[in-house]
Design a protein that fits this description.
Layout: E1 6-9, E2 13-17, H1 27-31, H2 51-58, E3 66-70, E4 86-89, E5 95-98, E6 101-104, E7 110-113, E8 116-119, H3 134-137
Antiparallel strand pairs: 1-2, 2-3, 4-5, 5-8, 6-7
């Protein structure tokens, strides 16, 4: 899958969606179905809710496939979490890390993640070290 990035805005906030990172947790549309509806095109319609509700829901995305930025500050620093890091295994799914983390890939390139990052536990991800939802395809149990 290509590294596609799609943006959807309500004028105040822009939602950024990276399909390659999506693990299809369904948290987005179960939590804010008026904005996130995978049965419709476009599947993200931010004009159907408030900026506050959108931000609250996007922060719950376990894979980081959804992120956001405020339109007035698109060039400013990324949103960061000021809290201790919490690590939580998701039943039959990824290892969820809440907080700010820096990941070094096999080539030595560093990437910064914040809010929630989902790491592969099953070994089947095509996007290691991150979860890509492959655990569902292989019926991973842990």
């Amino acid at each position: 899958m290509k590294d596609i990035e799609k943006k959807y805005s309500n004028g105040e906030v822009t939602i950024v969606w990276k399909p390659k990172a999506c693990i299809h947790s369904t948290i987005c549309f179960k939590g804010l179905g008026e904005v996130f509806d995978p049965r419709k095109r476009p599947w993200v319609t931010p004009e159907k809710s408030t900026t506050e509700k959108i931000i609250e829901q996007v922060k719950k995305c376990p894979s980081g496939a959804l992120s956001y930025f405020m339109n007035q500050s698109a060039d400013s620093a990324p949103v960061s979490v000021h809290a201790e890091t919490i690590v939580e295994p998701s039943p039959n799914g990824p290892l969820l890390v809440y907080g700010n983390v820096v990941i070094k890939n096999a080539d030595g390139v560093l990437s910064k993640k914040n809010n929630v990052t989902a790491f592969c536990r099953c070994g089947a991800s095509g996007n290691k070290p991150f979860c890509d939802g492959s655990h569902k395809k292989i019926d991973f149990i842990a």
